[in-house]
Amino acid sequence: MSPEKLIFRFEELGREHKKLVGKKCANLGEMLRMSLPVPPGFATSIAMYRRFAKETGAAAEITQYVKRMGKLKGKNIAVFDEMSLKIRGMIESKEMPAALVKMIASHYKELEKKGEAPDGAVSVRSSGTESRPGMFETYLNVVGIEDVLDKIKKVWSSAYTARAIALRVNKDIPVTGDELGAAVSRMVNARSAGISFTLDPVTGDTSKIIINSSWGLGEGVVSGDEDVDHFVVDKKSLKIIKSSTGKKAKMVVNKKRGVEWGDVPAKRQSALSLSNDEVSAIAKLALFLEERMGRAQDMEWAIEADSTPPNNIVLLQTRPAKLTVKKPESVTDRMIDLIVQKFYRP
Amino acid sequence: MPKKKQADKIWDAVPGYDFIEEVDLAAIPSWFLDGTHSVPPLTPLFSYQWARFCSHGFKAACSQLSIPTCKGWEIRIFNSGLYCGLHVVRDQEEIAQREVKFRQALRPWLEDFDRHWDDYKKELLGIYDKLKQLDVDRATNLQLYHHNYDLMEAYMRMWEIHFIGMYTSFNTWLLLEALTKERFGLSDQEAEFQDMMRGFDNKVYQMDKKLWEFGQLAIEMKLAKIFKENKPHAILPKLKQSEKGKEWLKQFMDYMTTDDIGGWRMQHFTDFNEPYWLEDPATPIGLVKDNIMRGNSYDLEATRAEIAKKRRTAIAAFLKKVPPEEKELFKGLIALAGKSSSYSEEHGLYCELSVHALMRRGYLAMGKRLARSGTIDNPEDILMLNPDEIDRVIMVPEAHDMRWITKRRRADWEKAHKTINPPVLTRRASPEEAIELDLLPSRDAIAIKIVVGEMPQPKPKLKADLWGICGCPGAAEGPARVVTKYEDLKKVQPGDILVCPSTNPTWTPVFGLVNGVITDTGGTLCHAAIIGREYGVPTVVNAQKATEKIKTGQRVKIDATNGAVYIL
């Protein structure tokens, strides 16, 4: 038995552990160190996946299979769909080795016991060493050890979603190049949730904080599929300079196990999903994160249904904010646009 | 009585461009003093040319580039000072329409500024070469008649080019400043910003370097003593007394006559009433003397290399803060903003200083012709006339007596030396309101960054006596030397703190001498700020009434980084 430690509570982690547990978990640890309101939980290391894959033979199977596929660049998406199905099956069909089950179960029980996740409901998220937004899977409202073990395997196998395979092939990264850790943390019973940017992802303006919010869990906001509430807060004065209500027809809510899309009650559809105080509190949190992380941040947060402000904000994740580049523009085009916008549009 | 009144009307100081309150305020609500170019008071001939063609250049550039919010400036003369009224575009739809063409017109300049500026330089040098071909002292009256128009045509074209270069280059400086301010809290008044914009190799620096090299050459040829022991005007005859001296002088005059600019460069940036270098080589020889006096401890090249190195370090440090997606944008902008810094220094040589030298040469020759016939008392009186009046009399000068005009205008001009011009002539309630309504909406980079400047923001904690804005960061202390006239520039001693209304490229050499500079007017792109940065001299600009409040000899301390001035 290797004495290597394969599982960690978030409070044992910090930003120096990105290689060990992946960026998301390392960041959650770092946020805890800053006393930020992060849901309690634990991380399975990337080495745990490696051990799983080695002991169950999945690693060898995958390597062989990928080798057989030969050169992949320029292949049709159908090929990646097929590969995804095969490889994910190779991982998910394997039994979790007993030693790993033990580790995970004891950490999961601890969450329940300490009252950190009293009803045993957790979320299981992917945590890789590279930032690949939207490539891997997240499982919400996972309940019971069997389900947790199953979802950890599914997170691991989500390194092989068709889109993730395609991305790696296009970027000349080996097909087996992403190995994941998993973040298991208390499921937040969110009344509202959303994202905030400390830089306008479209214009690059860093003088304002942009907040998008909707009812329920944050999935609708994160995926960008739904109409949301939009707030703009001035960084200097922390004044809300813009707030607009989106028509929020659908929301993601917890069911007994897992989550589902439901209808937003008619009355709440065009009501703001955040109070002004909540907007301010989120803006302050965003500013704090930007300052501590040393650059613009893109964060996900939720408003807990059962607590009261200002203690009802939960931080789910933060990462460096990136600009949404709409179309490839030359530097000259951007300069001209900016000159016109800044100086010649009253 | 009525007769005199009529003469007053027709023979104003600068007919057509004199400020007439009821007419001009009705057309444009506020007129702002161009303090940078109005001190000392301008002669009528120069005022006429400047008012007419500088304002044309503004309008031509705004039209050719389709500047969305401004159609250019008008210039009027009041009390021998220049007043600028802006044609602000206020209709939203018109602004939007102008924007379409503006985008197209700006693009080539952003893509390759140097190529376009090089083409313009060539065009200007071609025009000047043609003007130089006329031997003005031997020219017939008819040739001088035509020369009057050739000079004006050259002047017109110079101003068109001048402002196209200026508008295109300043926009990128402004954009860089806006972005660094917004994203990194960094304004162009701060050291971190300004260090990225220094140490460029342009024509002004090359000429300074050449003069420095002539100093080194004189030392090598063992001529240093002549320079050290004589006043500038006495140096030239002394040099002619020895073979080595003659050899040095030959090399020096070769440079003055064969270089693109060389001696075709006015001493004084504005006006025609001072000689150009070729006309009076004592000026550049005096600069060589200054370099020699400084001794070996001063190494121009090493100082410049240091500043250039600092620039590269500053840019690298800044770019580290920039997110990867924005790196290319900022890199490009920093390079272009550097060009606007360089352009605002270099254009003076190719534009104003050369053409003014040629205009002085031409008009002085016409003045001699008129003085010889008794039309005016002496050649310099030509500066009291305007081109239309010269046109009227130059063919048959002996038939005219223009002294009733020149005498009166000279008296007015001399009187103007004793009075101070108000900063703005306006029908608005206050100067602040005038700036708010009639200047800022033009979004005019030139008005905001050079001519009028941003308002100082006092920091009460620092308890300074005067406030300006930072032109070049740093601190300095020394005896004040208040210079309001170019002639007094010669009195500046090493280690002085120069206090002046504003500076222009003719003042550049003095920056190598002084510890610090304070100016009454100007913004972060004005001449004093740019040269301060190039020479590493702490500089406070737009300190408003510095020349009034500080007296020569008082000890002053400047904390340029904070725009603070202390009278000790």
Keywords:
heterodimer, A: 346 residues, alpha+beta, Dna Ligase, domain 1, D-amino Acid Aminotransferase, Chain A, domain 1, six-stranded antiparallel beta sheet, five-stranded antiparallel beta sheet, 13 strands, 38% helix, B: 568 residues, Glucose Oxidase, domain 1, 3 domains, eight-stranded mixed beta sheet, four-stranded antiparallel beta sheet, 21 helices, 12 strands, 54% helix
**CATH fold description of the largest domain in chain A:** Dna Ligase, domain 1
- Give me the Rg of chain A, rounded: 21 Å
Number of domains of chain A: 2
Helix and strand composition category of chain B: alpha+beta
**Beta-strand content of chain A:** 15-25%
Strand order of the largest sheet of chain B: 5-12-11-7-8-9-10-6
Largest sheet of chain B: 8 strands, mixed
Mean pLDDT of chain A: 87
Distance from N terminus to C terminus of chain A (CA atoms, Å) equals: 70 Å
Using only CA atoms, what is the Rg of chain B?
24 Å
Count of β-strands of chain B: 12
Structural class based on helices, strands and sheet pairing of chain A: alpha+beta
* Fraction in beta strands of chain B: 5-15%
- pLDDT < 50 stretches of chain B: none
Helix content of chain B: 40-55%
- Multimeric status of the protein: heterodimer
- Major pleated sheet of chain A: 6 strands, antiparallel
- Could you tell me how far the N terminus lies from the C terminus of chain B, measured between alpha carbons in angstroms? 56 Å
What's the total helix number of chain A? Answer: 12
